[in-house]
Amino acid sequence: MPAKLQRLWRDSVLGRHVLVALVGLLVVLLLLETVNDFRAIQLSSMAYLGIAAGGLTILTGLNGQISLGHGALMAIGAYTAALMLPDRDASTPLPLVVLVSVLVTLAVGTAVGAAAARLHGPYLAGATLALAVAVPGIALYFGETLGGEQGLRVSMPDVPVWALDAEYLLTGTEMTRSGWVALMAWTTLAVTYVLLANLSRGRVGRRWRAVRDGEVSAELAGIRLGRSRVSAFMVSAAAAGAAGAMLAFTVRLAAPSGFTLTLSLTLLTAVVLGGLGSLGGALVGAALLTFLPPFVTSVGSDAGLSDLRAAELAPLVYGLVMIAVILLAPAGIAGSFRAWRIRRQARVAVAPAPVAASATGTTGTPDSPTRSTVPTSSKGTPT
Fold first, then answer.
1. Which of 3, 48, 350, 358 is deepest in the core (most CB within 10 A)?
2. Rounded-to-integer distance, Cα 113 and Cα 127, Å
3. CA-based radius of gyration for the chain
4. H or E stretch including 279?
5. Does the keyword Kinase apply (predicted)?
């Protein structure tokens, strides 16, 4: 790569993130051509879990706030999407539905973040835990509008004509609804990650890290702690709203049973497994949450276990994997890989270079010093 391109790649943060996102979208598009509808739904699930985990890693990994209520924020985004796409009426464009879901969840996240701006640690976790418990109850209380225990069914629109034409022109195949939803989910993930990556690398991200590393030092530096915490919570809530809309598109339902405390704990688990503060780690954690349980269940069924026992085997294996990651890779999968790469680069940088050969043909290394050519006496002193 020419020096000019290398310098442009190093200095242009936005361009680098956009290029990586486009390459990732191209890989997903090619992958969708080779999988069936079930795998497409799994890819959609990985995408919306990755979106929510990416927002949570900004809040927890970069700003140091622990939230147990992101499942509730996803519920707000999902119900907003379901109200805009009711059953038997799918005329609203999907991008508009996602945008409105993000704005509604952002408004709720701003109110919650402002109320909890003075809280941190277990106190903030307790406040967001109350949110996670209360939101499904609100859906039950307003059962006539929000569908009660049965929830709201989401009517998916047909695949746009331009998407069908482009798919047929590029691959010669016709895109299904599941493939279209998966493509929309991964496009939303790519846009979200580009925005989150640029925020984390900019001035806003440096403020978040300063508050996380030392509140007193950050305040002495002129950073407003409350504003920093509220902004991180707002960004994280917006990502959760987009993830909730994608969840509603994928399962075609918004019901209280899908947004229990388990979902919030699952998102926090994905962030810890992947590595706090790493968007790539959040995506790795989402992949483990999506593909590991079905794989373990399939292995258990093939081994002769009943369906119930095979399903119970998945949480056990997932727990063992989490314990192994905590013991062997305390910084998470992505964090430990990054630390290993930094150590490897440091070893290569400090590795001794071979010394040039002397006129007598001998070479010098740290283990084999260069032989002296100064004559010495029999007692070992120079003559």
1. 48
2. 10
3. 27
4. helix 279-302
5. no
Q: Which of 109, 127, 105 is nearest to 118 (CA)?
A: 127
Res 106: pLDDT:
93
Amino acid identity for residue 381 in this structure = T
As a residue count, the chain comes to 383
Q: What is the DSSP letter of 253?
A: E
Please count the other Cβ atoms lying within 10 Å of the Cβ belonging to residue 201.
14
Helix (H, G, I), strand (E, B) or coil at 163: helix
Question: Is residue 366 classed as helix, strand or coil in its secondary structure?
Answer: coil
Secondary element (H or E) of residue 219:
helix 215-220
Cα–Cα–Cα angle for 236, 131, 184, nearest 5°?
40
Q: Where are the beta strands (DSSP E) in 151-249?
A: 152-153
* DSSP conformational letter for 372: P
pLDDT tens digits, one per residue of 44-99:
999 999 999 999 999 888 888 888 888 899 999 999 999 888 765 667 788 888 99
Which of 109-113, 123-127, 202-206 has the lowest average pLDDT? 123-127
Q: Which residue has the tokens 């030092």?
A: 217
- Distances in whole angstroms, Cα of residue 198 to Cα of each of 1, 192, 207, 224, 275: 24, 10, 13, 21, 18
φ, ψ at 78 (rounded to 5°): -70, -45
Q: What phi-psi label fits residue 64: left (phi over 0), alpha (psi between -120 and 50 degrees) or beta? A: left
pLDDT tens string 339-367: 777 777 777 777 665 555 444 444 444 44
- d(CA 153, CA 145) in angstroms, rounded, equals 12
Structure tokens at 15: 């361009």
Task: Name the residue type at position 329.
Answer: A
CA distances 104 to 75, 84, 242, 246, 373, Å, are: 11, 12, 10, 15, 82
